Amino acid sequence: MKRRKFVKNAMLGSMGAIIGTEIVFGSSMPDGYKPLALQDPDPFKMFDKDRDMVVLNDKPWNIEAQAHLLDDKITPNKYMFIRNNGLIPEDIDEKNWTLTIEGESVKQKKTFTLAELKSKFTQHTYQLTLECGGNGRSEFDPPAKGNQWTIGAVSCATWTGVRLRDVLADVGIKDDAVYIGYHAADVHLSRNPSKEPISRGAPMAKVMQEETLLAFKMNGKDIPLAHGYPLRLVAGGWPASVSGKWINGISVRNKVHDGAKMTGTAYRVPCNPVAPGEKVKDEDMCIIESMPVKSLITYPKSGAVLKEGKKLNIRGHAWAGELEVSKMEYSIDFGSTWKSCTLNKPANRLAWQHFSASIAFPKKGYYEVWARATDEQGIAQPMLLPGWNPKGYLNNACHRIAIKVS
Ligand SMILES: Nc1nc2c(c(=O)[nH]1)N[C@H]1C(S)=C(S)[C@@H](COP(=O)(O)O)O[C@H]1N2
Ligand SMILES: [Mo]
To answer: Boundaries of each Oxidoreductase molybdopterin-binding domain copy (predicted)?
Structure first.
């Protein structure tokens, strides 16, 4: 009886949080009743998103930004894309939240409360770029199934948490550990409790990096519910699917983790290039690791009009997975010639870098500004499309904006 009342109070609390105020007579609500305010949800209100964000799917929720919304150096929640594979957990009780570390390669299983994680380990803060592996999918031809992301499934927020490697050292890891997998509280679309919507992970080399965090804060506040409250894994520079939200478990594996969306063709690309539309066998698909070099012009918005004789000041961000971006250029003649942009160093490793340029146009007319980043290994973004792949991942084509000079 006590436990039921407790669960009900926690539910009322989280429903109230979504509605934005207390449900005054909530204790009188019939069990399992969903208040009207939650029955036909307005996603912008519910997730505290800007109304110019674009909803791609509501079951599960998938929402993307537009280039000009990503102009901030550090992405605020209202412009951060949401990518869910299942249903957002509803009755989160932060005080009783635990993280259990287990698997073949732990010396012994150990469970931490959130409070223990926060007090026992040193906290660190980094700006980390998170881009969905499927960002840019909408441009591939033949098309790939899945959310038709354009360019808005990328963010760079400030994340605060403890290092996963510090927590694993405290647990004790065996020498044969090769991979970790995360487990989370979100619910499979079928509502079958024995199915996980997603359970991905990373090899130990990524896990052991100082920037790989178990985070409990985003931009200095509790992580918003849609982004993984109260605890999320953050592994910047890799497909954001590695950064598990709402995590309550980690398996330390003696083999490559084989959880949901780790196997088959999920988050994999052909190990060797293939022709568009070609069938690829599962065993010829390789797991995506570091994301490729990419950039976005975030100001001005495509379609801007400029007075003749005026210079256009553009700005944006560039990132390159595990690598640094070493060169940023723009073209106003469809890629025939390129001029350099001013490019800043990242705030820390795995954070996106800011660029700007001041552009002169020779006469009135229609132009496109194309932006191209090159990583520290000399690899540049493709001007139009990169190699086709069956699931439509890793489209890092140059971003382009239209400009009229009148
Ligand atoms: N538990 C859980 N973690 C998850 C997901 C999910 O569906 N469930 N989606 C992943 C994918 S595919 C991406 S791209 C990022 C998106 O993070 P965001 O919604 O905070 O932007 O979360 C990842 N972590
Ligand atoms: Mo993703």
So the answer is: 88-259
Segments of the chain assigned to CATH 2.60.40.650: 294-405
Q: Give the residue among 396, 360, 361, 363 at the shortest CA–CA distance from 381.
A: 396
Residue 196 in contact with ligand 1 by CB distance below 6 A: no
Indicate the pLDDT class of residue 3, thresholds 50, 70 and 90. Answer: low
CB 405 within 8 A of CB 365: yes
Top mutation candidate among 47, 49, 79, 83 for ligand 1, by most atoms within 8 Å of CB: 83
Which 3 state secondary structure label does DSSP give 243?
coil
How close is the Cα of 359 to the center of ligand 2, in Å? 35
Whole-model pTM: value is 0.91
Residue spans in the chain of domains classed CATH 3.90.420.10: 46-287
Domain 294-405 has CATH 2.60.40.650: yes
Q: Is the CB of 186 under 6 A from ligand 1?
A: yes
Query: Is the beta carbon of 132 within 6 A of some atom in ligand 1?
Result: yes
- Ligand 2 centroid to residue 135 C-alpha, Å: 8
DSSP character at residue 187: B
**299 CB-contact burial (10 Å; exposed 0-12 / middle 13-18 / buried 19+):** middle
Backbone conformation region of residue 228, classed left if phi is above 0, alpha if psi is from -120 to 50, else beta: left
* Pocket-testing residue among 188, 245, 246, ligand 1, by greatest number of atoms within 8 A of Cβ: 245
- Phi, psi angle pair for 282, to nearest 5°: -50, -40
Question: 161: part of which helix (H) or strand (E)?
Answer: strand 154-163
Give the Cα-Cα-Cα angle 191, 202, 209 (nearest 5 degrees). Answer: 135
> Could you report the per-residue pLDDT of 67-105, keeping only the tens digit for each?
999 999 999 999 999 999 999 999 899 999 999 999 999
- Class assignment of domain 46-287? alpha beta
Report the C-alpha gap between 177 and 46 in whole angstroms: 40
- Per-residue 3-state assignment (H helix, E strand, C coil) for 319-359: EECCECEEEEEEECCCCCCCEECEECCCCCCCCCEEEEEEE
Per-residue pLDDT at 16: 84
Give the whole-angstrom CA distance, residue 162 versus residue 212.
8
The ligand placed nearest to the CA atom of residue 49 is 1
How far apart are the CA of 19 and the centre of ligand 1, in A? 23
Classify 78 as helix, strand or coil: helix
